[in-house]
C-alpha cells in the first residue's frame, strides 16, 4: 500500500527526504499529478506530494520576475500574468488531453521538470531559458539554492538549466524564480494552404530567415488539419503551413502583409487574426491533432529544422502513422498504432540519422517499461548522467529510473 | 588573492611533462621559454599575473583529448584559455599547471542558413561569427563589449552577455550544441542543429562553467536575421531616480528594447571629454534606448518611448534620425571604459546585478562607499536587466590604492547581494569574486555546486582556484551522514 508524505513547507520536504534516505525508500515526487504518465514507469512505495507548496510569493511586473511555490497551478500563474499583460514566453504545454486527463491541473514546477517549450521555442527558448533561480531539497536531504531573482546572472554553475528537464530526478524544488515577458498586443497567423512537407519546410525556412520576426512555424498535413477546432483550418481540406507574427498592432499588420506577399509564391495564402491564432497555436502546442485515437503511442522528435520534411515523410511511410511538425520542422509529433515497442526501432533509426532525438511521450505502462522512453545515450554520456544524478541524489531516492533505467 | 599552493613535485617534473606534451602536439605547439609564455601570464584582469608551468596550443580535438587524458594520468592541473579577454581572472595561469590555449581553433566550419546555425571552432572571435554571415543579412546576437577580440569559446565559458542580452539573451540562450572534451579525454557531443539537447541539460551546465568542467572544441550557435531597422533615443534626466523610473515604465508598457543603457554624471562627462558625442553634461543620468526590428515597429515604439520619457521627467530627449546619429549616441557609451581610463591611471570594472527598483539605493550606497574608500566611481549600467558596471578609479602606483579599490568593489558587490541581486551578471566569478561567493551562497549551496564539478572532474584538475572560495576533495563532499531509521520529524502530514 503506497503511502503519501504531504509536506507543507521546504523544511518538511527536507524532513521527508531525510526519512526516505534513512529508510532507503525511494520517493515519487508529485506536484499537481498531471504528468505522472510521462517518462519511464518506476516503483516507489511512497509519494512525496508537494501540492501544498502552492501560490505566487512575489511578482513584480516591471522586474520581469515571478516567484512562486512549485505546485502553483499553471492556470493561476498565467491568469495573474495576463492581468498584467505578461506571460511565460516559453508557452508551457498543457498535456492533459494528450495524456488522457480531463481537467487542466498542471503546475509551474511540472512545466519546468519536463522543460516544456511550445511553438515559441524557435524564438524565445524553452523553460530552461526562463528559469532564473530555485530552491530545492537534494537527495542528500539538504536545502540548497542556485540562480537568483534577477534576469542576468552568471554567479556559479547554472543549475537552473539542469533542473529543467530533470523530471524530478535531481531535487525536489520548493521555490521558483521565473522570467516573465510582455504579452503581445496582437497575434496574427499567415497560412499557406496545400503544401507538401518539403515545400512547407522551405516556406517555413524562408519565413524564419526573413526580417519579420516570425515567432512560430508549424505544418499540419491534410489528414490532420480537419481535426482543428478553428473552423477556417478545419474546412481547409488541405495541408496548412502556419507562421505566427505577434507584437504591437501596426507592426503586426505590416509584417503580416509583407510575409503574405513573400510566401504567395509557395501557394494560396490566408491569415488568422488574434482569437483564431491563439486557438490554433494552442492546438499545436498541446498536440491536439494526435490526442485521438487514444491511447496510440505518440513520439516527440527533435531534429534540425531542415530535416523536418525528410524525417516526417520517412516516418509517415510506417503503417498507420500520422504526424505534424512545429518549430519550422524541428519538432515532429508522430502517432503510430499501438504495438509492443511503439515503433521505437524505426523511429530512433530515422531520427539518429538526421541528428536529433526521440522521446516516447505517450504509450502504455508496459511499453514504456520495455522501450527506452528517452533517446538512448552514448555510454560516456550515460555514465556522466549517472554521475550528475549521484551528485544530487547519491542514494537514488528521488524519482529513480524516471528518465533512464538505474539513474 | 590566495591561489592553491603550487605542487613542487609537479613543477619538478616539468621537463618530463613538456616532453610528453610534445609527443602529442608536435612542432611549436608546446611553449616552455619564459619570454614566450609571458603573453599568457594574465587575462583581462591584469592586476593578477602568474607564469604558467607550460603552455600548450593544440590544433585538433584529438590532441585536446590526449592532452587532458595525459594530464589526468600525470596529476597535472590544466587552465583552459580562449582569447584572454575575460575580466574575472578565469584564465589566470597556475605555477604548477599547463595553460591550454585554444587560439589555433580559429576556423568557422559550417554556415547553415536553412537551420540558422553556424558551426565554429572555439577560438573564432564573437564578431568573427557575425562577419561570416552578415553579407547574407544575419548576425550572432550576444555582443560582449570585447566582441572584436573575445573568442566564442570564452563566451561559452563565461556565458557572456552584452548590450543586447535583455532582448536576445545571453550566450546560453544562443548556443545549440558543443563538442566537449572531458578531463578523461572523452570527446562528447551535446546538442547540435536541433533546437534542444536530450537528457540532462549538460549544454546549459557547461555554458558559464568557467573552464572547470571540460574543454569545448566545437560550437554550434544560432544566428538571427539582422533587424531591418535600429534607432536610438537619447534621454537626459535630472537624477538617476527618474531614469530608473523611466526604465521601469518602458518595460511596464510591454516594450523590450534591443538595448537600454544608463550612465551617471561622472561617466557621461568622461565619455564626452573623450569622444564628444554631444551628451548633455549637466544631467544626473543619461539613458540610451535602442529599438530594433521592422521599420514600422521601430518608428511606432520610438514615439511610445519618447512619451514615457517625457512623462518621467526627462530634461532632454533626442531621437536618432540617421544611422550616423545612432552611432554617435552609442559612441560615448561604447567608449566609456577607455574614457574612464583617460581620467585615471587605473580602474577596475565591477559587474553586479540588482533588481532594477534598487537602482537609487545602490547609487546612494556607492556614493557613501566612495567617500569611505576615498576613491572615485563612474557608473554605466545595462539598465534594462539591472546589470551594473561601476568603474572604480585608482592609481596602482600609490601605496594601498589597489587594495582600497578592491575593498570598494567588494563592498559594492556585497551591497548588490543584500539588495536581492548577484555578484556577477556577465563577467564571471573567476578569481575576482571567488572569495565573495559566501555572500550569496551558503556552504551547502557551494558544496552542491562542487559535487557537480566532481561528476566531471573528480581530481579537481581543471582550473582549480577559480569560482569556489574553498576547495574540497570529492570524497569528502560525497560523504553522507544518514541518521537513524525512524522518521525524525513526525509532523509531516501523512496519508
Structure description:
The complex is a heterodimer of chains A (407) and B (495). By secondary structure, chain A is an alpha+beta fold. Chain A has helices spanning 10-23, 74-83, 108-113, 121-124, 159-163, 197-208, 222-225, 231-234, 249-263, 274-285, 308-316, 344-354, 365-370, 379-392; strands at 3-5, 27-30, 46-49, 56-60, 65-68, 86-87, 131-138, 143-147, 171-179, 181-182, 186-193, 216-220, 240-247, 268-272, 298-302, 322-326, 331-335, 357-362. Chain A has three domains: 56-182, Uridine Diphospho-n-acetylenolpyruvylglucosamine Reductase, domain 3, CATH 3.30.465.10; 186-285, Alpha-Beta Plaits (2-Layer Sandwich), CATH 3.30.70.3450; 290-368, Alpha-Beta Plaits (2-Layer Sandwich). Chain A contains 14 helices and 18 strands. In chain A, strands 4-5-9-7-8 form a five-stranded antiparallel beta sheet. Chain A has a four-stranded antiparallel beta sheet with strand order 12-13-11-14, sandwiched between helices. A four-stranded antiparallel beta sheet of chain A has the order 16-17-15-18, with helices on one face. Chain B is 35% helix and 19% strand. Chain B has helices at residues 8-12, 14-24, 34-37, 61-74, 126-133, 152-158, 165-168, 202-206, 240-252, 265-275, 295-311, 323-334, 336-343, 359-373, 401-418, 437-440, 443-456, 474-478; strands at residues 30-31, 54-56, 77-81, 97-101, 108-112, 117-120, 138-139, 175-181, 187-191, 215-222, 224-225, 229-237, 259-264, 285-293, 316-319, 346-349, 377-382, 387-394. In chain B, a hairpin with a 5-residue loop joins strand 8 and strand 9 (187-191). Chain B is globular. Chain B folds into four domains: 8-101, 2-Layer Sandwich (Uridine Diphospho-n-acetylenolpyruvylglucosamine Reductase, domain 2); 108-225, Uridine Diphospho-n-acetylenolpyruvylglucosamine Reductase, domain 3 (2-Layer Sandwich); 229-337, Alpha-Beta Plaits; 344-435, Alpha-Beta Plaits (2-Layer Sandwich), CATH 3.30.70.2740. In chain B, helix 2 runs antiparallel to helix 4 (61-74), helix 10 (265-275) packs across helix 13 and helix 14 runs antiparallel to helix 15 (401-418). In chain B, the strands form four sheets. In chain B, strands 15-12-14-13-17-18-16 form a seven-stranded antiparallel beta sheet, sandwiched between helices. A five-stranded antiparallel beta sheet of chain B has the order 5-6-10-8-9.
Amino acid at each position: 500500500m503506497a503511502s503519501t508524505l504531504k509536506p507543507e513547507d521546504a523544511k518538511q520536504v527536507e524532513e521527508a527526504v531525510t526519512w526516505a534516505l534513512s529508510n532507503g525508500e525511494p520517493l515519487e515526487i508529485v506536484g499537481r499529478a498531471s504528468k505522472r504518465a510521462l517518462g519511464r514507469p518506476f516503483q516507489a512505495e511512497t509519494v512525496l506530494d508537494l501540492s501544498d507548496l502552492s501560490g505566487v510569493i512575489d511578482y513584480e511586473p516591471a522586474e520581469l520576475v515571478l516567484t512562486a511555490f512549485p505546485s502553483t497551478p499553471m492556470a493561476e500563474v498565467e491568469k495573474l500574468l495576463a492581468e498584467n499583460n505578461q506571460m511565460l514566453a516559453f508557452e508551457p504545454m498543457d498535456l492533459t488531453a494528450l495524456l488522457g486527463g480531463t481537467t487542466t491541473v498542471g503546475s509551474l514546477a511540472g512545466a519546468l521538470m519536463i522543460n516544456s517549450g511550445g511553438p515559441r521555442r524557435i524564438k524565445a527558448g524553452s523553460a530552461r531559458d526562463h528559469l532564473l533561480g530555485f530552491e530545492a531539497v537534494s537527495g542528500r536531504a539538504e536545502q540548497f539554492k542556485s540562480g537568483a531573482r534577477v534576469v542576468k546572472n552568471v554567479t556559479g554553475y547554472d543549475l537552473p538549466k539542469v533542473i529543467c528537464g530533470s523530471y524530478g530526478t535531481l531535487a525536489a524544488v520548493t521555490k521558483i524564480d521565473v522570467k516573465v515577458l510582455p504579452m503581445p498586443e496582437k497575434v496574427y497567423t499567415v497560412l499557406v494552404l496545400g503544401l507538401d512537407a518539403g515545400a512547407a519546410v522551405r516556406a517555413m525556412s524562408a519565413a524564419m530567415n526573413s526580417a519579420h520576426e516570425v515567432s512560430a512555424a508549424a505544418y499540419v498535413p491534410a489528414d490532420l488539419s480537419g481535426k482543428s477546432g478553428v473552423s477556417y483550418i478545419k474546412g481547409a481540406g488541405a495541408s496548412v503551413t502556419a507562421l505566427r507574427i505577434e507584437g504591437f498592432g501596426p507592426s503586426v499588420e505590416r509584417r503580416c502583409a509583407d510575409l503574405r506577399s513573400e510566401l504567395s509564391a509557395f501557394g494560396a495564402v490566408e491569415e488568422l487574426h488574434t482569437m483564431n491564432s491563439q486557438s490554433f497555436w494552442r492546438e499545436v502546442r498541446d498536440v491536439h491533432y494526435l490526442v485521438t485515437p487514444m491511447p496510440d503511442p505518440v513520439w516527440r522528435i527533435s531534429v534540425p529544422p531542415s530535416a523536418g520534411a525528410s524525417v516526417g515523410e520517412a516516418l509517415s511511410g510506417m503503417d498507420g502513422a500520422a504526424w505534424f511538425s512545429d518549430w519550422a520542422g524541428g519538432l515532429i509529433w508522430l502517432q503510430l498504432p499501438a504495438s509492443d515497442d511503439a515503433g521505437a526501432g524505426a523511429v530512433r533509426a530515422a531520427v539518429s540519422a538526421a541528428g536529433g532525438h526521440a522521446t516516447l511521450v505517450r504509450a502504455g505502462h508496459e511499453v514504456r517499461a520495455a522501450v527506452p522512453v528517452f533517446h538512448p545515450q552514448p555510454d560516456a554520456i550515460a555514465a556522466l548522467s549517472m554521475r550528475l544524478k549521484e551528485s544530487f541524489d547519491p542514494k537514488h531516492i528521488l524519482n529513480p529510473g524516471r528518465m533512464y533505467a538505474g539513474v | 588573492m590566495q591561489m592553491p599552493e603550487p605542487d613542487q613535485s609537479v613543477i619538478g617534473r616539468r621537463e618530463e611533462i613538456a616532453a610528453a606534451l610534445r609527443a602529442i602536439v608536435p612542432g611549436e605547439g608546446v611553449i616552455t621559454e619564459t619570454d614566450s609564455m609571458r603573453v599568457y601570464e594574465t587575462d583581462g584582469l591584469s592586476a593578477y599575473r602568474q607564469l604558467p608551468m607550460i603552455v600548450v596550443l593544440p590544433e585538433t580535438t584529438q590532441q585536446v583529448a590526449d592532452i587532458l587524458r595525459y594530464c589526468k594520468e600525470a596529476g597535472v592541473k590544466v587552465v583552459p584559455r580562449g582569447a584572454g579577454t575575460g575580466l574575472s581572472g578565469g584564465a589566470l595561469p597556475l605555477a604548477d599547471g599547463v595553460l591550454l590555449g585554444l587560439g589555433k581553433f580559429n576556423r568557422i566550419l559550417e554556415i547553415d542558413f536553412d537551420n540558422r546555425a553556424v558551426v565554429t571552432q572555439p577560438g573564432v572571435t564573437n564578431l568573427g561569427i557575425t562577419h561570416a554571415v552578415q553579407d547574407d543579412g544575419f548576425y550572432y546576437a550576444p555582443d560582449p563589449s570585447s566582441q572584436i577580440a573575445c573568442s566564442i569559446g570564452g563566451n561559452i565559458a563565461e556565458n557572456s552577455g552584452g548590450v543586447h542580452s535583455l532582448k536576445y539573451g545571453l550566450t546560453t540562450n544562443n548556443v545549440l550544441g558543443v563538442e566537449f572534451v572531458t578531463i578523461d579525454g572523452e570527446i562528447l557531443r551535446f546538442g547540435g542543429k536541433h533546437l534542444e539537447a536530450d537528457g540532462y541539460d549538460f549544454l546549459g551546465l557547461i555554458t558559464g562553467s568557467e573552464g572547470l568542467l571540460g574543454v569545448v572544441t566545437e560550437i554550434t550557435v544560432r544566428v538571427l536575421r539582422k533587424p531591418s531597422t535600429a534607432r536610438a533615443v537619447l534621454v537626459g534626466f535630472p537624477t538617476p531616480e527618474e531614469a530608473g523610473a523611466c526604465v521601469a515604465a518602458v518595460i511596464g508598457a510591454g516594450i523590450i528594447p534591443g538595448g537600454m543603457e544608463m550612465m551617471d554624471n561622472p561617466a557621461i562627462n568622461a565619455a564626452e571629454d573623450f569622444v564628444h558625442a554631444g551628451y548633455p553634461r549637466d544631467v544626473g543620468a543619461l539613458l540610451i534606448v535602442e529599438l530594433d526590428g521592422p521599420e514600422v515597429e521601430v518608428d511606432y515604439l520610438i514615439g511610445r518611448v519618447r512619451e514615457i520619457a517625457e512623462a518621467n521627467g526627462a530634461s532632454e530627449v533626442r531621437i536618432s534620425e540617421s544611422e550616423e546619429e545612432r552611432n554617435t549616441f552609442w559612441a560615448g557609451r561604447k567608449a566609456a571604459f577607455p574614457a574612464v581610463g583617460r581620467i585615471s591611471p587605473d580602474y577596475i570594472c565591477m559587474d553586479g546585478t540588482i533588481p532594477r527598483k534598487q537602482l537609487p539605493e545602490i547609487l546612494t550606497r556607492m556614493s557613501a562607499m566612495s567617500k569611505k574608500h576615498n576613491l572615485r566611481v563612474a557608473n554605466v549600467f545595462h539598465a534594462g536587466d539591472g546589470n551594473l558596471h561601476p568603474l572604480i578609479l585608482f592609481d596602482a602606483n600609490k601605496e594601498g590604492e589597489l587594495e582600497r579599490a578592491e575593498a570598494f568593489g567588494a563592498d559594492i558587490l556585497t551591497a548588490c547581494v543584500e539588495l536581492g541581486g548577484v555578484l556577477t551578471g556577465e563577467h564571471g566569478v573567476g578569481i575576482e569574486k571567488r572569495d565573495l561567493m559566501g555572500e550569496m551562497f551558503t556552504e551547502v549551496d557551494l558544496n552542491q555546486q562542487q559535487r557537480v564539478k566532481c561528476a566531471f572532474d573528480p581530481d579537481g584538475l581543471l582550473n582549480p582556484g577559480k569560482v569556489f572560495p574553498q576547495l574540497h576533495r570529492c570524497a569528502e563532499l560525497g560523504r553522507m551522514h544518514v541518521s537513524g531509521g525512524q522518521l525524525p520529524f513526525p509532523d509531516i502530514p501523512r496519508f
